[in-house]
Specification:
five-stranded mixed beta sheet, 11 helices, 15 strands, 22% strand
Length: 329
């Protein structure tokens, strides 16, 4: 059987996965190794290579066809370089692809994590079967991967899809270094900032929410804590997510008007808070987007769930083989 290898490099954890490629283009993940990201790129690369060695030793009858690497940007996918991501200190112009091609003698490719996740959702998740899709991360940050006319669109220098930098308001939570940005309103860190602002005012008025009653608790407030409170019906927590949902709807309207996609697939926080956010998002779309464009675009939560990181890196390997014409599925 043909094997694809996936390398997922994160700020806190790395993962190495093996997947068996099925003839219909689907993939079955057969093994996975995870470990904390080492402090230097040299150590990380060595551990990733050793982990892949061990996984391949357990499948001697199978043939490794390609390796896909997913990592936070910025990066240069054409040259295989990781270019100082904010969550990977010391990774300055690190050649991540060459060590794998030298060791294993098979094609290897690099994509940023948003693009890799877009490929995965397009191949095997909520975007399967469409030609024009936007994937939005909506996790720690807000980024996009773009599938346009049946192919990944990365832009001139791998910077396409940096939608988190779009300013939605003159003031607001800070994301991507910009107050009032899409990432400020629609990310884990941004929602935490928004919550601290709103809760601080409630505390000052002597009417704090049950999930954060004192000023001492305020610095520890996270989007996850607010989300749990919203699920339990706390009105302040629900209002915080309503603000985020309103801005999400406005940003989606911009993307729909500009790119006219068939689907927008949204990950992480949107899926967890869909019951609160979806009606508000759809109302904003009705108000803001071109009706003819909005009518042909579905808004869906990500289909691959917590496994999207594993599938993302594997999809980079598959996409590289397809682009080179080395396989057909």
């Amino acid at each position: 059987m043909k094997l694809l290898a996936g390398i997922d490099i994160g700020g806190t954890k790395c993962a190495v996965s093996l997947g068996v490629l099925i003839e219909d283009g689907t993939i079955q993940i057969v093994s996975k190794t995870r470990f904390h990201t080492p402090s230097t790129p040299e150590e990380a690369i060595e551990q990733l290579l050793n982990a892949l060695d061990k996984e391949l030793e357990n499948r001697p009858e199978d043939e490794l066809a390609a390796i896909g690497i997913s990592c936070g940007g910025p990066l240069d996918s054409r040259r295989g370089l990781v270019l100082s991501p904010p969550n990977l200190k010391g990774w300055k112009a690190v050649d991540i692809v060459s060590p794998f091609t030298r060791r294993y003698g098979v094609p290897a490719a690099l994509q940023n994590d948003a693009n890799a996740s877009a490929l995965a959702e397009w191949k095997w998740g909520a975007g399967k079967g469409c030609s024009n899709m936007i994937f939005l991360t909506f996790g720690t940050g807000m980024g996009a991967g773009l599938i346009l006319n049946g192919a990944l669109y990365a832009g001139t220098n791998d910077m396409a899809g940096e939608v988190g930098h779009i300013r939605l308001e003159q003031d607001g939570p800070i994301g991507y270094g910009k107050a009032g940005s899409f990432e400020g309103f629609c990310s884990g860190g941004g929602i935490a900032q928004l919550a601290k602002r709103i809760v601080s005012l409630r505390q000052a008025d002597g009417n704090p929410p049950d999930f954060c009653t004192t000023a001492e608790e305020l610095p520890m407030l996270t989007a996850e804590m607010v989300g749990r409170a919203a699920e339990q019906g706390d009105p302040v927590a629900i209002d915080i997510y309503r603000v985020s949902a309103t801005q999400l709807g406005r940003a989606l309207a911009l993307l729909i008007d500009v790119l006219n996609p068939e689907r927008i697939v949204i990950g992480s926080i949107y899926g967890r808070q869909k019951a609160i956010m979806e009606p508000i998002v759809m109302e904003e779309l009705r108000r803001e987007a071109l009706p003819s464009s909005s009518a042909v675009c579905e808004i869906l939560q990500a289909g691959l769930g917590e496994q999207i990181g594993d599938y993302a890196s594997l999809s980079v390997a598959l996409n590289h083989l397809l682009e080179k014409g080395e396989i057909q599925v």
